[in-house]
Design a protein that fits this description.
Blueprint: H1 4-14, E1 23-29, E2 35-43, H2 47-50, H3 53-62, E3 67-72, H4 83-99, E4 102-111, E5 114-117, E6 122-123
Parallel strand pairs: 3-4
Antiparallel strand pairs: 1-2, 1-3, 4-5, 5-6
């Protein structure tokens, strides 16, 4: 069973999340919260701005996901999380509810020791 804290290492190692290049990734989980896939959804400058919920949920459904953990890195400091992240988070959960997709967490990862959960509004 995978949890948010466990997923941070997976995102950093598999998707090479770092402070240099923006990456948006997703872990898909089955009904029993077992990881079924790690997917890079977008890579490069302004990756967060380019990702759409249609792309994200389409990919999740194609991978037969029961739930997902979404993550991306941000060039910002966690103390300075912009309102755009909260707006997207709200929209993301509305869409997830409409499509009946469970979102286990929505993470911003700066590095292994500096992560923030937008779902739970706290540092991990």
């Amino acid at each position: 069973m995978i949890k948010s804290a466990d997923s941070i290492d997976i995102f950093i190692k598999v998707l090479k999340i770092n402070k240099k290049t923006e990456v948006v990734g997703m872990i898909t989980l089955d009904y029993y919260n077992r990881m079924t896939a790690v997917v890079e959804l977008m890579h490069g400058k302004n990756a967060f701005k380019k990702i759409g919920t249609d792309d994200l949920f389409n990919k999740a459904f194609m991978l037969d996901a029961f739930s997902i953990i979404l993550a991306y890195n941000s060039p910002q400091n966690i103390k300075d999380i912009d309102n755009k992240y909260y707006k997207f988070n709200k929209f993301l959960f509305i869409e997830a509810d409409r499509l009946q997709m469970d979102i286990k967490d929505h993470l911003i990862i700066l590095d292994k020791n500096s992560c923030f959960s937008l779902k739970n509004n706290c540092r991990i």
